[in-house]
Amino acid sequence: METMLQVEGMTCDHCKKAVEGALTGLSGVKQADVNLESGKVRVSHNDTVSNEALKEAVENQGYDVV
């Protein structure tokens, strides 16, 4: 599966690494790619990962999923 998240507050490479690391740290997430310019995050994962879990992982890093 693939999910696109719109994330606000990411401005630098540190932000990118924090969000990608939080998402790939979830069981079942294969890959997370942040596009800083658009604020979009593409997450490849299996079907056991909920959108709520993805959102929570990002928000725990201090960013907002809209």
TrEMBL record:
Residues 1-66 form the HMA domain. Keywords: Chaperone, Copper, Cytoplasm, Metal-binding. InterPro entries: CopZ (IPR049740), Cu-bd (IPR000428), Heavy-metal-associated_CS (IPR017969), HMA_Cu_ion-bd (IPR006122), HMA_dom (IPR006121), HMA_dom_sf (IPR036163). It holds the Pfam family HMA. It is found in: Cytoplasm. NCBIfam families: chaper_CopZ_Bs, copper ion binding protein. This is Copper chaperone CopZ. It comes from Halobacillus kuroshimensis. The lineage of its organism: Bacteria, Bacillati, Bacillota, Bacilli, Bacillales.
